[in-house]
């Protein structure tokens, strides 16, 4: 067990037993994030930290339902005063497990969902960069990733996504992806087709018809800081329009792939405003204000663990991160 994990366990234990703990949760918006709700990892997902067991997912939703006022995106965007303990549940990355496991559980527990989708992955025509990198790392070792990246210091997949990848331009990123495809011995299309990991058009439509709000997660899951005007149009705006065509419903929110505030560039935000978008979501585990900034909504990624640790992740850790962050 890492020292981080021990600290989380210990602090959550103490904080959860405080009689004043519920006062922490009042007023400001909380937003949580899930990805792939599935019983086990496989070679396309191991190491990405995206998989959560369906039973664990149900437990987390029950906890959230007991301790918070669960919102729809419409309620958040309405401008009306928020309830006492507002919380929004979101799911990123287009995994088919949303229709197979997550949405049915959420429906049963009456939890509204916002689902952020990558338009290029619909119908399993290709493999996302993240799943391709995981496949190469899991089947051939991280050494192959290092060679394709020409960077011997890459420690693991998280390091690849957090440090190496954001520094690339779009053309460098495409070239790197191509080298990974060569390493995998596949352009990813047949792997995607065989795995059926992502939503089909029909599944996406049925999800939207069942009341799940569909949001935009870019076409190919890129770091938006690398996009110029034409890149924004292709990766974000056209992607959103395609989702609207599939679902027949407006797309009014964007979740930034990898979730960093730096990817919400002034150019991107201004194009989004012009196009009628109303909200942008991050994943920096920070704190939302009582009146949240809808162009930088902080989310907390959910993981397995007892209730008190989820509560720690939602109530203690974001404040700690905010306090530590340079002004
Ligand atoms: Zn994502």
Please, could you describe this protein's structure?
With 327 residues, the chain is an alpha/beta fold. It is globular and about 55 Å long. The longest helix is centred in the last third of the chain and has 19 residues, at 229-247. The protein has helices at residues 3-16, 54-67, 73-77, 97-108, 129-140, 142-149, 157-164, 170-184, 189-195, 201-209, 229-247, 266-274, 307-324; strands spanning 30-34, 36-37, 51-52, 69-70, 86-92, 113-117, 213-216, 253-255, 279-281, 300-301. The protein has two domains: 3-125 and 197-322, Glycoside hydrolase/deacetylase (TIM Barrel, Alpha-Beta Barrel); 129-190. It has 13 helices and ten strands. Zinc ion is lined by residues 92-93, 217, 221, 257. The site of zinc ion has 5 residues, from loops.
Helix-strand layout with pairing:
Elements: H1 3-16, E1 30-34, E2 36-37, E3 51-52, H2 54-67, E4 69-70, H3 73-77, E5 86-92, H4 97-108, E6 113-117, H5 129-140, H6 142-149, H7 157-164, H8 170-184, H9 189-195, H10 201-209, E7 213-216, H11 229-247, E8 253-255, H12 266-274, E9 279-281, E10 300-301, H13 307-324
Parallel strand pairs: 1-5, 1-10, 2-3, 4-5, 5-6, 6-7, 8-9
Helix pairs in contact: 1-13, 2-4, 5-6, 5-8, 6-8, 11-12
